[in-house]
Amino acid sequence: MSTIRSPIVPIKPNEDSLNIHRALRGLIYDAGAIIDILAYRNAVQRSQIIVVYKNMFEEDLCKVIKSKLHFHFKKAVLMWMRDPFERDARILRKALRANRSSQRSYVLAEVFSTKSSDDLLSTAKSYHSLYKRSLQTDIEASLSGSCQKMCKKYIMQLFMQYLVRNKSHAVDLEQHVAEEKANMLHKLVSTDINETSLIETLTSDDPRQLCRVLDAYKSMYGRDISEVFEENSKKGNTEFCKTVGIIFRCLSCSENYFAKVLYKSMKGTGTDDDTLIRIIVTHAETDLAHIKAAFVQRYKVSLSSMIRSDTTYKYRKFLLALVGEDS
Length: 327
Fold this sequence. Notes:
Blueprint: H1 13-24, H2 31-38, H3 43-57, H4 61-68, H5 71-81, H6 84-96, H7 101-113, H8 117-131, H9 135-144, H10 149-164, H11 175-190, H12 195-203, H13 207-221, H14 225-233, H15 238-266, H16 273-283, H17 288-299, H18 303-310, H19 313-323
Helix pairs in contact: 1-2, 1-3, 2-19, 4-5, 5-16, 5-19, 6-7, 6-8, 7-10, 7-15, 9-10, 10-12, 10-15, 11-13, 14-15, 15-16, 15-17, 18-19
């Protein structure tokens, strides 16, 4: 469920473009005006603004924003203005270039496990258009040069299979089929993990179908399968198990997973602003309302109140506009 509150009255892209142009003019930009427009427009409306702005002023709005805005406010607004597939492509590119291998795997797990085959294909096309490189090639290059060669091999195979899996988006699973697959999954994880078979299981179904399997698993065996992987990550193939555990958590109860990620990004001294921006921006138009509810239920404090205490000025105002009012 989205947290974006678009105006009730019809949007006029020409007016929005003119007002944004005025707000960005001069040495000191009007952050309030920018937030009051862009934070309250959905993806289609923002796309229209970009096109109209280009026609009216012969400038790329994203390039103007990049040159005028600063720091975390600039990062957040720019990410918000991107086409969703371009946005995911940029997120993947940044993750693949991260210094920490776990950061690479975990961000890829979040993106790949929650997207349909069509979405991943569109993201891969955007990636190639932006960087003139294949997403598959960069995944292979990023995940191959490690001392944990076998672990990396399986993680790489996992994400490569996501990119080439067959489309299966239309058909829901019958309950007995979901239970059969859940039983197979239980056999795969109850003893020594067979990574190859597990990768095939994870990538053979659409996310919605796999959710049915995970629900059946929990009903049949009385526990969430992500708990099994948390235990396994302490025994052996740590990064692979943690990566698969993230995939399972994203599929079975994504709001709880992302609530935890948001909390950790602001907990304690300092703020992981890249993570905070990424989660807020990418979920604002889909399921951020559910994440907010899970956040307050789990941590007894609202997401908005933590953002207020951890961020400042226009950056804070923009994030709060995306998050929406506390219910």
